[in-house]
Amino acid sequence: MKMRTSISRHQSAMTIIEMIVATGVFSVAMAAMIGASIALQTSFSATDDYFTAEGDQLRVMDYFNTDLRRALAVQKDSNTVSYTPPGGAATTYSYAIGDSKATKYFTMVIPNYRDLTDRTLTTSPLTVNMPKVSSDNKVDYGQPIVVCYYLSGSSLYRAEVNPNLPSSDTRNNPRSIADNVSDFNVSDPSFVKNPLTTQTFVQVSATFAPKYSRKGWAAALSSNTDSRVGTTLGSKVQLRNVF
Q1: Greatest CA separation found in the chain?
Q2: pTM for this one?
């Protein structure tokens, strides 16, 4: 007699409702992960912009303060400055700005403390320009160095032209010291008499893109759309080269 064995197979599967619920839970989890990833990227970008802006602001103010403390003569809104050296005649010094986008200038002359004529960038040591003292105890370092700041677009440039170097020397070329700059201002230095004979102070400030919203800031300003005005830093500097 043959015995018939019956094999029962139990198969399990998800119902449509279970699939819908699982898909919904997965979608919510993925949306949360994507949202968290976007938030982290936004926070990282904002933090990076903050430290970039902070570095730009400190660097620009350091340049302004250092140059003004050494300044022999200053002139705002111009690429020329007049200076009368001790025992000499009034001389006009200028910086030829080859940038057609330049919109604002601030020019000064500082003492030429170092002779860079025979110095390479890596080997030769610095040569000090020895000062000349006139009979009335006024110090003169010879032909001064011209320093010019100017805006080009949203970048702030600084040029330092040493009279001992040929005009083609790259050390005379302007360098961008900060981006996302909308403006800089200098208090009216028309009261400055050259050479300086009285204690004189000059106020200088610069306006930068907001620390946490730099992207698209320049375009927003130019199109007059809603945007934060920016971050303004300033300082009051004493001109120390008083005769």
Answers
A1: 140
A2: 0.74
Question: 146 forms bridges with which residues in the sheet?
Answer: 109, 161
Q: Chain centroid to CA 195: how far? A: 30
End-to-end CA distance of the chain: 131
Per-residue three-class SS string for 8-36: CCCCCCCCHHHHHHHHHHHHHHHHHHHHH
Decide if 107 contacts 78 (C-beta within 8 A).
yes
Own/partner contacts of 36-43, CB < 8 Å, gap of 24 or more, are none
Residue-level pLDDT at 17: 84
pLDDT of residue 62: 93
Q: Which two tokens stand for residue 60?
A: 């620009």
Distance CA 120, CA 167 (A): 16
- Copy the structure tokens of residue 36: 């968290």
Report residue 67 as tokens: 């140059």
Alpha helices in the chain (DSSP H): 16-70, 217-222
Q: What is the mean pLDDT of each run of 10 residues along the chain (243 residues)?
A: 54 75 87 86 78 86 92 88 80 87 89 72 64 71 89 91 84 89 82 70 86 63 60 86 70
The residues with which 232 forms a beta bridge, in sequence order, are 207
218: how many CB neighbours lie within 10 A of its CB? Answer: 17
Paired tokens of 33: 């992960």
